[in-house]
Amino acid sequence: MISIDTKRLHLRNVLQNDVDVIFDYRNNEICARYQRGQVKDYDGIVSLIERRRNDEISIDFPCMIAVALKDTNEMIGEIVVMPKDHTFSLGYTFSYKYHRQGYAFEALTVLHEYLHKMAPEWEFISFTECQNIASIELLKKLGYKDLGYVPSMDSQAFGKWTTLVTEGTPNKEIVSAMLEAERIAKNPNVKGYHDVDELFADLDK
How far apart are CA 16 and CA 47, in angstroms? Predict the structure, then answer.
């Protein structure tokens, strides 16, 4: 069970009554602009929630986290955590209705602290499109360092929380994650997982 609180927010498991909220923001142009391959149809979201509703935060399996207002339990966004090779990769989408209110920073700050305490030796990496200035600024505010452009993904890579990332030079785990991303993107026989929903679906098979 996922349960983490901040001053204004409650991070929890996704629930079936979240489907209307997820459907709304995933089909909104502002939210969808920089999201690749997310499930957007109503039945697909219902199925996704059913698969992810019992997720737990761990170093062994990916999870989907709902970010909700503490006072009402209304879902306002989602965070995906993907652990692999001593590296956490995080992705997030927040409803357009709640942009520019500090909710993403508040939720991600407490989640980073939680994950870092769980696995203090692990690296953090996040990919974002170069045009997504808001996401880039958020990552910098969270303490991420720019690791450079990944051409095959057309994305900028950012890393956080390590004594081994100095002066913009990534360590071997992050280099491995970036090279894996490159390999997946270039190899037509390997399925890429920039689409998190497809990753979840394959893991459930």
Answer: 9
Rounded-to-integer distance, Cα 154 and Cα 151, Å = 5
Burial class (CB in 10 A: 0-12, 13-18, 19+), 119: middle
pLDDT tens string 101-128: 999 999 999 999 999 999 999 999 988 8
- Condensed to tens digits (0 to 9), the pLDDT of residues 123-179 reads 999 888 888 899 999 999 999 999 888 887 778 889 987 554 444 455 545 555 555
CB atoms within 10 A of CB 182: 14
Helix (H, G, I), strand (E, B) or coil at 85: coil
60 CB contacts (<8 Å, ≥6 apart)? 83
Tell me if 146 sits within 8 A of 51, measured CB to CB: no
- pTM for the predicted model, two decimal places: 0.80
pLDDT digits (tens, 9 = 90+) for 25-64: 999 888 777 676 688 999 999 999 999 999 999 999 999 9
Q: Enter the tokens of residue 57.
A: 């935060």
Tokens of 144: 């991420």
172: nearest Cα among 109, 100, 123, 105: 123
